[in-house]
Amino acid sequence: MRYGIYSHRFGDRWLVGGASNTGGAVLKKYFTTEELIELSDRISTSQASPLDYYPLLKPGDRFPINDPELQARLEPQPLDRVEFLHGLLESIARIEAQGYRLLESLGATPLKQIFTAGGGAHNPTWTAIRQRQLGVPVVIAPQTEAAYGTASLALRGIAS
User: Fold this and answer.
1) Is residue 160 one of the residues assigned to a domain?
2) Distance (Å, rounded) from C-alpha 50 to C-alpha 72?
């Protein structure tokens, strides 16, 4: 896997994507859920953070950089926890944008909108940062339960 890209069958089509090792688990290492909520509210989403991290819990990533030896980049860490969180959120969003650019460069349809699920989907600061980095609307998916997708496939008679 040169690029760390994989596919999922969806009816008679394929959904192409990739998964990074950066994200929520890294945030949970440094912040409690309560801190994420409280500190996020203090971030100005109209300005990008000057911090440029590649947040990983251990060496290696799969997408958009497929490198099992890739080292985390988490310096400098400001004393101000709001600034640190802002830097992490901006960096994760930049990595996500890099992934979508890679997919598009390989022939994927350009982004028009992102449907999101999970805990971060309910954080308006995170959503605003992602929208700014991606340049498209980011909205909470109408259905976020994994069981919904499984039931949809069963309804269509699609077996794995």
Assistant:
1) no
2) 17
Buried b (16+ CB within 10 A) or exposed e, 32-56: eeeebeebbeebebeebbebebbbb
Cis peptide before 142 (omega within 30 of 0): no
- CA angle, corner 107, sides to 101 and 110, nearest 5? 55
- For the segment 63-88, the average pLDDT, to the nearest whole number, is 97
User: How many structural domains are present in the chain?
Assistant: 1
> What is the residue-averaged pLDDT of the chain?
90
Residue 145 lies in a domain: yes
Which tokens in the block code for residue 56? 């990983």
The predicted-structure confidence for 134-154, as pLDDT tens digits, reads as follows: 999 999 988 877 677 677 767
CA dihedral 110, 115, 118, 120 (to 10 degrees): 70
Residue 1 forms part of a structural domain: no
DSSP H/E element including 114: strand 114-116
CATH number of the domain that 116 lies in?
3.30.420.40
Give the single-character DSSP code of 42.
Answer: T
Cα 33 → chain centroid: 17
Enclosing domain of residue 25:
6-155
